[in-house]
UniProtKB/TrEMBL annotation:
PANTHER family: 5-AMINO-6-(5-PHOSPHO-D-RIBITYLAMINO)URACIL PHOSPHATASE YIGB, N-ACYLNEURAMINATE-9-PHOSPHATASE. One of its GO terms (biological process) is riboflavin biosynthetic process. It comes from Nitrosococcus wardiae. This is HAD family hydrolase. Its cofactor is Mg(2+).
């Protein structure tokens, strides 16, 4: 088993080791709130479309664009896991329908994705991630379309996986398995932290990883799922839990 030397401990404690070497983290609602960023990104993209594709925006608003994306997710099952592909396909079809150029879709998605990365991490996240990145390998596993490398947290992650890279979204095992492979660790050496009971906690446990449920909003755990092993409300609690896992 690979053991990790903890570098931020006192000399006497420096002989301690953790059985965990890889920490995978969900992004939205785990390291930053996404709701207002998503809303803002959609508004910015809509303003851009008003300039470049006025026929489309004359017959659509943010709600009808959202409704169309839902339809596309249902109709195009083969891309439903990739939210960026769903957005692009939806927009391309609507642009064509309204006699605007479908080729504007890619550029419009670029405008959306740039604003999608204007996230503000929860205050407890950056200082804890900075410390953890010195000891553990950190990877982000998101179903969303933020690009960590374009966010304030870019320095802390060793690698990042998305549905587009993995070929499947959580709760499918693909993203977790690819993270384990990329880090070169066994499932029992890894822990996943996320806010979604099924996509994060249960899915990670199903590939043999440990899982921590981050419950910032004091939501009830679904009654039909087996209870989580660990519940935390912020990253300070995560840091304490990780410290408890260290064997002296
Ligand atoms: Mg989440």
């Amino acid at each position: 088993m690979v053991m990790t030397q903890l570098t931020n401990l006192s000399p006497r404690e420096s002989k301690t080791v953790s059985p965990l070497t890889l920490i995978t983290l969900d992004l939205d609602e785990t390291v930053w709130p996404s709701e207002s960023v998503l809303k803002k990104a959609e508004e910015i993209q809509f303003k851009w479309l008003q300039q470049r594709a006025p026929r489309l925006t004359a017959s659509h608003d943010l709600d009808s664009l959202r409704a169309h994306r839902r339809l596309i997710r249902e109709q195009y099952a083969e891309i439903a896991y990739d939210l960026t592909a769903v957005r692009t396909t939806s927009l391309r079809l609507l642009l064509k329908e309204s006699d605007d150029s479908p080729d504007l879709a890619e550029e419009a998605i670029g405008v959306f994705l740039e604003a999608r990365n204007w996230v503000t991490p929860y205050a407890d996240v950056p200082p804890v991630l900075e410390k953890l990145a010195r000891t553990y390998r950190l990877a982000s596993l998101t179903n969303g379309n933020a690009d960590v490398q374009c966010t304030p947290l870019k320095a802390h992650f060793h690698f990042s996986l998305t549905p587009c890279i993995a070929g499947a979204a959580k709760p499918a095992p693909d993203m977790f398995q690819q993270a384990l492979e990329q880090a070169g660790v066994e499932p029992h050496q890894a822990v996943h932290i996320g806010d979604h009971p099924e996509c994060d906690v249960i899915a990670a446990q199903q590939v043999g990883m440990r899982a921590v449920w981050i419950n910032r909003r004091e939501a009830p755990w679904p009654a039909d799922l087996p209870p989580p092993e660990v519940i935390i409300k912020d990253f300070h609690e995560l840091e304490r839990w990780l410290f408890q896992q260290i064997k002296i």
